Amino acid sequence: MNVRRTRLVSGLILLTYLATHLLNHGLGLISLDAMEWGRQWFLLLWRNPLGTAVLYGALLTHLCLAIWALYQRRHWRMPVTEMLQLTFGLTIPLLLTVHIVGTRLTHEYFAVDDSYTLMVLTLWHASPMDGLRQAILIIIAWTHGCIGCHYWLRLKKWYPRAAPYFLTLALLIPVCGLLGFVDAGREVSNLIARQPDWLERFLIAAKIPPRSQRAILTQIYDGVLITFGAAIALALLARVVRSLVERRSRIRISYPNGLLVQAPRNFSVLEASRLANIPHASVCGGRGRCSTCRVRVSHGLASLPPPSAGELKVLQRVGAAPDVRLACQLRPSHNLTVAPLLPANAQASDGYGQPAYLTGQERQIAVMFADIRSFTAIAETKLPYDLVFFLNSYFAAVGEAIVANGGIIDKFVGDGVMALFGVESGPEEGCRQALAAAQAMIAHVDGLSRALSEELSAPLRIGIGVHCGPAVVGRMGYGETIHVTAIGDTVNVASRLQDATKEFHCQLVFSDEVAMQSGQPIAGLPRHELTVRNRREALAVFAVEDLGVLART
Ligand code: FES
Predict the structure, then answer these.
(1) Is the pLDDT of residue 146 over 90?
(2) Is residue 148 in contact with ligand 1, taking CB distance under 6 Å?
(3) Domain residues of the chain, as ranges?
(4) What is this structure's pTM?
C-alpha cells in the first residue's frame, strides 16, 4: 500500500470515528440518558481490542504521514485550502492529546468511567474554557477530514451530483453534535440546581483520583506534546539541510513562451512552477491523483526515470501519450523542457478517464458538412431578432438529428454545421450514422420549413456533403472553446462535397468511400467524377436529391 492510499485509509478511519462520536453527542438533543445509551454502542465499536488497535493505529499512521509530508514539501507556496489543511492537521494533536488523556487514559489507569455525565460536568460546568477548546478541536478535525474527503472524491465522476448531499451531512453532523453537547450541559446544570447534593454524590461515585495521583497523566501529556514538537522540529531541520544540499546543484526547466525556471535538482516540476509563480493546474494538490498537472516533455524525456506504478495508472486513465508525465510526480535531475497540457483553471472533470483520441490521434472517420441554400437571401429579409430565432431553430433541428444518430457536432459557423461520425465506433458505423443523420436532418428541416412557412418565401433546403477518411482528431481550441474537432484532407473534401450539392442540384453528395464503408447500395444513384483541390485523381461521388431512396444499412 503506498503512502497516498495509507493516508487516505487512515484518514477515513479517523473521520468515521469522529462522525460516530459526533452522532453520539447529537443524542444529547434528546437527553443525557440517550447520550449514555448511544455511548454503550460507541464503546462497543471503538473500545474493544480490535477497534482500539484500528483507531490508534490510524491516528499514529496519519500523524507520521503528516510529518513526512511536512518534510517532503519543498516550499510553502500553495493554494489556501492546502495551507488550511496542513495547519489544521498540525493543530489537531495539540488539542486532541488532552482529550485522550482525560478520557481513555484516565479510564485505563484509574478505572474511572469517563461517562458523558462526567465529561459534560467537566467541560460545561467546571471548565468551560476546556469545553470551548474541545469544540474548536471538533470543528478543526471535522473540517480537516471533510477537506481531505472532498479532495479525494471530487475526482469521481458521480461526485458533482452527490456533493450537495455530502455538504448537508458535513454541516449537519457537527452542528447536531455541538448542539447535543450544549443541551446535555444545560441538563447537567439543571440537575445541580434542582438537587444540591447531586454533584457530591456523583463525584464520589465516579471515584476520580486526587490530582496528586494523576501526575502520571500529566507526564504522559507532556511527553506526547514534546515528542510531537520534536518530530516537527526534526522534519523542519531535515528540510533545511536538504534544501542547503539541493540548492548547490540546480537544473533549468523551460516552459512555453520562453519562461525559464532554475529549480533545485529533484524539485518536482509542479513545485518549480509554484516557486516561479507560473500558473499550473493541480486539482488534487500534488497528490498524483487528478492528472490535471500533466505536462508534455519535449526535451529531456530520455533522462527521466520511468513513471512509478501510481503515476502510470493515472496517465493511462487519461490516455496520455508516452511523452506526457505528471508534473507533481516528476522530479528531474537534468534540464527539461515541458509544456503544461491543461489551463491553470482546469477542473476535476479534466482528470476523468478520457478516450485516448482526445489528446490527438489519427482516426478513420466520416465528416459531414451542411448548410442552408440561399441563406443570404433569407437573412436579408429578417430583423436581427428573427434571424437569431430562425438560426437557433435550424441548429436545433439539424443538431438533434446529428446527435440522435451518434454524431459529434464539431461546430456551427454562420448557417453551416460540421459534424463527426465514427470517432469511437470506426468508419463503417460512422458512415452509416452519417447517412442516417442526413436523412433525419432533411426530415427535420422539412418540418421546420412547414412550421415557418408564413415567414419563408420558399421551402427551406439544405445541402449536405459526407466524406470518409483519415483525420487528426482531438480536443482543440482555447479556454471555453476547447472541444473535439478534426483536421486534415478528409475535412476539406467533405466541405467540397457540400459545395457540390449546388452544382448537382441535390440535397446530399457523398463519396465512393462512404458508400463502400456504409454498405450503401449505389445502383441507380447518379454518379459523378469530382475534381478536388490537392487531389490528382477525380473523386467518385453520388448525388442524391430524394434521400428516401437511401437504404437503411
Ligand atoms: S496535481 Fe493532481 S496529479 Fe499532479
Answers:
(1) yes
(2) no
(3) 3-242, 250-351, 356-549
(4) 0.66
